[in-house]
Amino acid sequence: MGYTTSMNFLVIANFKSNLTKEQVQSWLTAVKPVAGMVIAPSFLHLPLFSHLSPSLSLCAQDVSPFPVGSYTGAVNATQLLDYGVKYAIVGHSERRRYFHETPADIASKIKELLAVGITPLVCLERNQIAPQFALLDDDLIDNSLFCFEPSADIGGTTIAPISLIKEVVAEIRSFAPSSKVIYGGSVTPDNVSQLLPLGLNGVLVATASLDPASFLSIIRECSHVG
Question: Quick one: which of 34, 103, 91 has its CA closest to 62?
């Protein structure tokens, strides 16, 4: 492929609850890992990625808010570490909406992840910023990665207004001046170039990441950032 992104600029593919094992293997055949690429498959498919190039970083889509123990159906941070997981998404708007997760739940997940050395990727809408940061101490904030992810702009082809992204990213950085901040919400090959001049540290890509050609186009657009 011949493209690479800076390790300071992350391109994160969130597969959500999509793709079968066969489809994931086909995706891997088409997309070769490059520096700065982060892949978030379902829990079941983490082993398919854990043996790949160190250029690729593995991300979990969620984590249990509880430690090792009697929590049927939960996947804890220590178990994620077994598969070489470096990042884990917490606070995604779909988790907050459909699974009724609270800021306190997300804070517990952040603590569990950092206790084993996994970096939390904390997703926030604007109205969640102050309540979420109120539950995090400086150490948790400084060691987390934050994502502005407006739910109204998820699953489409249009990103949020650039002026709004600038405002909200600045607000997040007022709480987390030492942390990386990324944007997620309908990032596509056609609009990612609009995000690159904003001083972001990466993008969270969902629907567009499922198609190898589309995802490779985004990688190409981001290849000069550094």
Answer: 91
